Amino acid sequence: MDSALSVRKLTKRFGDFTAVDEVSFEVEDGKFFSILGPSGCGKTTLLRMIAGFYKPDGGTLLFNGKDMDGVAPNKRPVNLVFQNLALFPMMNVHENIAFGLRRRGEKGPEVDRKVRELLERVGLPESGKKQITQLSGGQKQRIAIARSLIMEPAVLLLDEPLGALDAKLREHMKVELKSLQSLVGTTFVYITHDQSEAMVMSDKVAVMNNGRFEQIGTPQELYHEPKSSFVAQFVGNNNKIRVTLRSDADGSFIARYADAFDFRLSEKYEIASEQEEYDLFIRPEAVIINPGTERKNFNILPVDVTSILFDGGNSRLLVKPLGTEDELVVALPQTREYDNIRAGDRIQVGWDMNKSICFKRSDWKLYDEE
Predict the structure, then answer these.
(1) Half-sphere exposure of 114 (CA within 13 A, CB side)
(2) In 10 A of CB 264, how many CB atoms?
(3) Dihedral, CA of residue 105, residue 110, residue 112 and residue 115, to nearest 10
(4) pLDDT per residue over 314-364, tens digit each?
(5) Which CATH superfamily is domain 3-233 in?
(6) Tell me: the pLDDT tens digits for 28-71?
(7) Pairing between β-strand 239-247 and β-strand 253-257 as defined by DSSP bridges
């Protein structure tokens, strides 16, 4: 499939600070591509270079194979939707959507036809005469996108467009946006710090950190096959414990935890020293409560239950491995067989050796740690 957007070694510096450091990626035509990362990682700077507001210090940017070097923002086949939406309150819905066409010099019945067709495509066919103040938050979102789509951009850039919505509407709009993108078929490039937004909506996600892409992949690939400690922590919920690694005579790798527990690993690692520290990651839903001893290739860990967090299908146990101050999160299946577990109980938890992964210990922290 052809690329609507090609970015090759794009770089942007502000003085001695490199905000975007030789970033390269391709976005296929008609796909939903998200750039996910924490505040200050460089994603908005990257978006502004794509839009033409910042001039790159290096690299190449192409839309549909055409180099954008020296092309002004208003001449690029791209449109931008901001978090504040920037709808004109003095105009009705029809006039808001038609604004770009009229500025381009189009007039007459053809403009009205295009607006009516686009209102149909975004699911608001009877809203043309409404004032902006009469719309819900989700409807305003669709109108802002319609106003951008009417200019027929090759790529629609969205800069955290759900950030100003309340939590319930944001959850609803994640599904709405994905459905809308599939319906209109326009290429979306979406910027967010919210991993749930990126995972739910995207065909591909790039995880950005310190001006570089750590990994690009499908949401499933990022979740199940992270390539760095940063991705393992930033995408989805994950337990992290500090271990050291060694290899057995048969070539199997063992993670030593808290000088007391040995966990079998399925991956191979290059170990410079057996004293070198690694982070071992296990997803909460991969941890089994009281797994028994008959399971093959299972790692078993005795723990004390510190808290039970009941939240229906999202319920969890907080547990503390014996002899440590670490706290792990364990998914609590709602099968009623675990209703008798109480805070203070000592239980066993375990996980298949294929469900954990190690990376060399990282100084990057998702949350403040002691």
Answers:
(1) 21
(2) 16
(3) -90
(4) 899 999 999 999 999 999 988 888 889 999 999 999 999 999 999 998 765
(5) P-loop containing nucleotide triphosphate hydrolases (3.40.50.300)
(6) 999 999 999 998 999 999 999 999 999 999 999 999 999 999 99
(7) antiparallel
